[in-house]
Write a structure and sequence with these properties.
The complex is a heterodimer. Chain A is an alpha+beta fold. Chain A has helices at 15-24, 26-29, 132-154, and strands at 4-11, 45-48, 55-59, 65-75, 79-84, 95-104, 107-115. Chain B has helices at residues 17-28, 87-96, 136-143; strands at residues 10-13, 31-37, 43-50, 53-58, 79-83, 100-107, 112-118, 124-130. The chains are: A alpha+beta, B alpha/beta. Strand 1 (4-11) of chain A pairs antiparallel with strand 2 of chain B.
């Protein structure tokens, strides 16, 4: 078994547009966080390479490209799964993020499920000393903030 | 934390909170806004959203937190749901989801049409829709009660 953090919020857009903006405009709507730093450097610009196997990268100010993960499932406009690792993670650790887009009336329910984050070892910088429950609660808030930012981009 | 939540929230305890998440969605249309599970698959925390309100659905996480199913069906507080659309249809949806309707929809002296139901673990919920405006004077005349604070 693996830990799961699931959050969902509605955005004012069709699933097609929400999926498109999630992937193609992530560099615009993504909000970096001091708590879940992808790299120790100043936050760069995120980008997806569309399609299964495509990379999720962060391009830093110095031009270096950090690979956060790869797309594991590409099912527009309903579902997107990608791997997720932060630079401080041990080499053999990856976590997984599943994003779903579900039409509800004229809105779209965007949900994010982030699996396996409790495997980040004690003492790792990505944990900030938090025990599992606090870490997962912060992770949930982090993703709620990201979906809200996506919603802002969509309106 | 999420900035849309009304500042008063109920946290309700269930023996099987995962089942509760499903039947509360089926009956009332609450949507899971947050769910945190540990590596054993246990629900650590969850929040369901209804409008700008949240209800937290949790386990019996201490000796003093029990589902009605564990204490002879008793309730020490109930959650009231105020809706703006058809309360009769709402009631039928709850019935179809396996909730026991313990008071069928009925219009009350204060102008709300309400029903009361019991969910599969014994929590009692009341649901109301305002169907006619009633003044304080009218309500007092109908009931013989002295009413203060009627807006």
């Amino acid at each position: 078994m693996t830990s799961k953090v699931y959050v969902a919020l509605r955005v004012k857009a069709t699933p097609e547009r929400a999926f498109e903006v999630f992937v193609a405009e992530i560099g615009g709507w993504w909000r970096p966080s001091d708590l879940f730093q992808t790299t120790p450097r100043a936050p760069g610009r995120l980008a997806f390479e569309a399609g299964e196997g495509g990379r999720l990268t962060e391009t830093l100010a110095n031009g270096k490209v950090f690979e956060i993960g790869r797309i594991l499932a590409w099912e527009p406009p309903r579902r997107l799964v990608f791997s997720w690792r932060q630079a401080s993670f041990p080499p053999d650790l990856t976590t997984e993020v599943e994003v779903r887009f579900e039409a509800v009336g004229d809105e779209t329910r965007v949900s994010v499920e982030h699996r396996g984050f409790d495997r980040v070892p004690a003492g790792n910088a990505a944990r900030h000393g938090f025990p599992d429950r606090a870490l997962l609660a912060r992770l949930a808030e982090y993703w709620q903030g990201q979906i809200r930012a996506l919603g802002g981009q969509l309106t | 934390m999420a900035d849309w939540r009304a500042p008063l929230m109920s946290a309700v305890c269930y023996r099987d909170s995962r089942a509760a998440l499903a039947f509360l969605e089926a009956a009332f249309g609450f949507e899971v806004a947050m769910l945190i599970e540990d590596d054993a698959g246990q629900v650590v925390h969850s929040e369901m959203r209804f409008g700008n309100a949240v209800v937290m659905v949790g386990n019996e996480w201490s000796d003093d937190h029990k589902s009605p199913a564990s204490i002879g069906g008793k309730n020490t507080q109930t959650v009231h749901i105020q809706i703006e659309t058809d309360v009769g249809a709402h009631c039928e949806r709850a019935r179809a989801a396996g909730f026991e309707i313990i008071a069928e929809p009925e219009t009350q002296f204060y102008g709300d049409r309400t029903y009361r139901c019991r969910d599969p673990e014994g929590h009692i919920w009341t649901v109301a829709q305002t169907v006619q405006p009633v003044s304080r004077e009218e309500a007092e005349a109908r009931t013989g009660l002295k009413i203060t604070g009627w807006v």
